[in-house]
Design brief:
single chain, 126 residues, mainly alpha, 5 helices, 0% strand, elongated
């Protein structure tokens, strides 16, 4: 007997499209962080850019772990993290834009790192 799509959803914890949405949100978060890092480097704010780069390296590792787990038996609920990642991406996009415009750069870097810490913590919990 083969499993129907609804059986598969029940077996693995959540639907494949939910897994894809989580992964896509994490990749978008990484992309926004990369934009913030690049903007800081263009402004010769190397120490702050290095902080973002270090965080981004950790996120990349988590993305790799999640991809591996998705291929095996990733269980849990994507529904709770997708809105959190969506909000983080909106916040990161705004913060990166402010950095690019050189508005309150130091505070924006602190904000970006705080947002990224929250996303990383959420990714680790998956």
């Amino acid at each position: 007997m083969t499993a129907s799509p609804s059986d598969e959803r029940r077996i693995v914890g959540f639907a494949p499209e939910d897994k894809e949405a989580v992964l896509e949100a994490l990749i978008n978060t990484r992309r926004h962080a990369q934009h913030a890092e690049i903007s800081l480097r263009f402004q010769s704010r190397t120490a702050e850019a290095d902080q973002i780069a270090a965080w981004n390296a950790k996120l990349s590792e988590e993305i790799d772990v999640l991809v591996d787990r998705m291929m095996d038996d990733w269980l849990g609920s994507a529904g709770g993290i997708v809105p959190r990642l969506t909000l983080a991406n909106i916040q990161l996009e705004g913060a990166a834009a402010e950095i690019k415009r050189r508005v309150a750069v130091t505070q924006q870097v602190v904000d970006v790192i705080g947002i990224l810490d929250g996303v990383l913590a959420a990714a680790v919990m998956l």
